[in-house]
Design goal:
Layout lengths: L1 H12 L1 E2 L2 E2 H12 L5 E9 L4 E9 L3 E8 L8 E4 L2 E6 L4 E5 L4 E3 L2 E2 H4 L8 E8 L3 E8 L8 E7 L5 E7 L5 E13 L2 E11 L6 E11 L14
Antiparallel strand pairs: 1-2, 3-4, 3-17, 4-5, 5-6, 6-7, 7-8, 9-10, 11-12, 12-13, 13-14, 14-15, 15-16, 16-17
Length: 230
């Protein structure tokens, strides 16, 4: 009974051992997706047989330019993200079209999974629960147009690393499950180099996203314009 009362008090205040939910999320997100400007190379391999490779430029908290390197037939099909707005350049019609962040780009990976997807700052967060090793956080989108409306995330207590997350609709229906594994030195910190994304309704459908390279570098804001999609 005493344990239940203590847990209820923790959930009511959103704090655990002096750590509030916002601080936990901020630390975890800086590991998962640093706020710096950097470039990275990512591959996505899916159970449907597709294999994609992308070069991604990240500009601060809300800018991304994605260039498709593989497969060869998709080279030139590039993407620009500015806040929650995203454009795709389609070479065969020589036009840039606006697309949604939750539209799939490769296998189970969406546009928002490949580009920058912030947790801290874009979502309201509450501490739902905890066990010996993890905090369980519930994230609710602050505005429309983000990649996912709700996220349930499990954060490791010993090092603030994201362990796994469920991506959900506004009603709480689970869409995808993601696991963050193989932490290694990337862009000055230990970060997940492999993410396994699984369809919540069909576990046979999954994609493995691997960060092959990540390096901090200066990229001017003027680089993130639709003219550079071509």
């Amino acid at each position: 009974m005493k344990k239940l009362i203590i847990m209820a008090a923790i959930l009511a205040t959103g704090q655990s051992n002096g750590m509030d939910a916002e601080s936990i999320l901020k630390k975890a997100d800086e590991i998962r997706n640093p706020s710096n400007t950097y470039r990275m190379e990512v591959t996505v391999e899916s159970t449907d047989g597709s294999h994609n490779r992308f070069e991604i430029a990240i500009g601060g908290k809300d800018k991304s330019l994605i260039k498709t390197l593989e497969p060869r037939r998709d080279v030139g099909k590039n993407f620009l993200m500015l806040e929650e707005n995203m454009w795709a350049y389609v070479p065969n019609i020589n036009r840039s079209l606006q697309v949604s962040l939750n539209q799939k780009i490769s296998g189970q990976a969406s546009n928002g999974d490949i580009s920058r997807m912030r947790w801290h700052g874009d979502y309201d967060v509450t501490l739902e629960g905890e066990d010996k090793d993890h905090w369980q956080l519930l994230l609710v989108a602050k505005r429309n147009g983000l990649t996912y409306d709700k996220i349930r995330a499990w954060i490791k207590k010993k090092n603030f690393r994201p362990a796994k997350a469920d991506y959900m609709t506004k009603t709480g229906r689970k869409i995808k499950h993601i696991e963050f594994v193989k932490f290694k030195k990337l862009a000055g910190g230990l970060r997940p180099s492999k993410m396994v994304i699984t369809d919540a309704t069909d576990s046979s459908k999954s994609s493995i996203l691997r960060i092959r390279k990540m390096k901090k570098t200066a990229i001017p804001g003027s680089y993130f314009v639709t003219e550079n999609l071509k």
